[in-house]
Each structure stands twice: as structure tokens, then as C-alpha cells.
């Protein structure tokens, strides 16, 4: 049986362009939980559905960990996501917005339901990005490409992306064309912390009345 075709996702893969995108998200004046969820999606490198379906019970902020159960993962394996200090601060800021319901990122209409499947991409379109320029799922392509280009261990990057070891998947998620010398093997927690500092955008913490400071870029 022939393996299913792996399809790439529209994504921004240069750091300067990614910084512009992050600034656009920072300036987004839509629903606060959508803005926070987009930023959390970038900080954690997971799939959009895993962020939308996140529940309060999955987070252990004292241990800076997000534990996604197997039934919510595409590969049907549980996934423990180490949270950078920026990610922890973001969750702490939006925690009151999710009170009264299970979803960490509740919908506009009710706190008892998560954001809709199209919420992320609709917001990106409102920021002026077309479907051919960037998609929410493309954030993972961005992370994989930039981290690989910076010379991080590809196996650690694959672990962060919760991928099974597959060259086909790696090729789909990476658009860098030349191999780079690799740094020593680093854990997922260190890599996610460094990922949160990668973009070339604003240099100060972003603040908003609803969310407070959460995303720092150097």
C-alpha cells in the first residue's frame, strides 16, 4: 500500500518576515483568547487543534509543563510540552478568562466550548495575510525551518514537533536547502525556550490590558 501523500503548509520561513507576522499578531485587536492562542501556538510548536482543545487540567504551571493526552494527539501518543517562561506567563495571564469552563482558550460565544476550527486562519486573514502566505499549521513549518537553519539537532526538533522519526515528514516541515553544522544535543525544554527568543521583532515585552506581558523577543 502506498503511503499517503505529505502536503506542505503555507508558511513564512525567513526570520525577518516571521518577526513582522509576530508584530501583526501583537497588534491584533480581535478576541483576546484568539490572540493569546496564536502566540501560545508559536511558543509551543504544536498543532492548532491541540491548542484549541487544550483544557485547564492539562497544565501544571508549577512544573512548567503541558501534558497533552494521547487521544488528542495526531500520532495517538501522549505529549509532554515543556513551557518556556513566556508560555507560562501567557497562560497565567489568560487563566481568569477560562474560568467557568474546561477549555483553556474558550470561544467568543461561551467559555464552555473551545475556539472554532477556523478561528486562527480567519484571524490571520484579518491581519492581511492570504492563505497562500501563511496558515496556523504553517507555524510548525516556520519553527522547523528556522531551528534547522540555526543548526539545532534535527532529532530534538522532531521531538519538539512530536513527530515520529520520518524523513518524509521532516522534508515536508523543513524548507532549508543546505545542511548546517549541528550544535550538541539539547533537550526540548531548552530548545523551546530559545525558540521563544528567535524572531527579529520588537525588543520589549508586549503588554495589553487583557493579557499582560507574555511574549519577549530579542
Automatic annotation (TrEMBL):
InterPro entries from the UniProt entry: DNA_brk_join_enz, Integrase-like_cat_sf, Integrase_catalytic, Phage_Integrase
Keyword Flavoprotein on entry: no
PANTHER family (alphabetical): PROPHAGE INTEGRASE (PTHR30629), PROPHAGE INTEGRASE INTS-RELATED (PTHR30629:SF2)
Superkingdom, natural source: Bacteria
Entry's Gene Ontology BP terms: DNA integration; DNA recombination
CDD domains: INT_P4_C (cd00801)
The keyword rRNA processing belongs to this UniProt entry's keyword annotation: no
GO molecular function: DNA binding
Gene3D superfamilies per record: Intergrase catalytic core
Protein name: Site-specific integrase
Region (Disordered): 194-218
Family membership noted in the UniProt record: Belongs to the 'phage' integrase family.
Species annotation: Aquicoccus porphyridii
Keywords, comma-separated and alphabetical: DNA integration, DNA recombination
Domain Tyr recombinase residue range list: 7-187
Stretches with biased composition (Polar residues): 197-207
A Pfam entry, by short name: Phage_integrase
Amino acid at each position: 500500500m502506498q503511503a499517503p501523500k505529505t502536503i506542505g503548509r503555507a508558511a513564512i520561513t525567513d526570520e525577518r518576515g516571521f518577526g513582522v507576522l509576530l508584530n501583526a499578531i501583537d497588534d491584533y485587536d480581535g478576541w483576546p483568547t484568539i490572540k493569546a492562542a496564536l502566540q501560545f501556538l508559536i511558543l509551543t510548536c504544536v498543532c492548532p487543534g491541540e491548542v484549541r482543545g487544550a483544557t485547564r487540567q492539562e497544565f501544571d504551571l508549577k512544573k512548567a509543563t503541558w501534558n497533552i493526552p494521547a487521544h488528542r494527539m495526531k500520532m495517538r501518543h501522549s505529549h509532554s510540552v515543556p513551557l518556556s517562561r513566556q508560555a507560562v506567563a501567557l497562560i497565567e495571564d489568560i487563566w481568569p478568562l477560562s474560568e467557568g469552563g474546561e477549555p483553556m482558550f474558550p470561544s467568543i460565544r461561551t467559555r464552555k466550548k473551545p475556539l472554532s476550527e477556523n478561528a486562527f486562519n480567519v484571524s490571520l486573514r484579518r491581519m492581511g495575510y492570504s492563505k497562500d502566505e501563511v496558515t496556523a499549521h504553517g507555524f510548525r513549518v516556520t519553527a522547523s525551518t528556522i531551528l534547522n537553519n540555526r543548526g539545532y539537532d534535527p532529532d530534538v526538533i522532531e521531538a519538539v514537533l512530536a513527530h515520529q522519526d520520518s524523513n518524509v515528514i521532516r522534508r515536508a516541515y523543513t524548507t532549508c536547502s543546505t545542511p548546517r553544522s549541528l550544535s550538541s544535543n539539547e533537550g526540548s525544554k531548552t530548545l523551546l525556550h530559545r525558540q521563544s527568543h528567535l524572531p527579529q521583532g520588537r525588543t520589549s515585552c508586549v503588554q495589553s490590558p487583557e493579557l499582560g506581558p507574555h511574549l519577549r523577543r530579542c
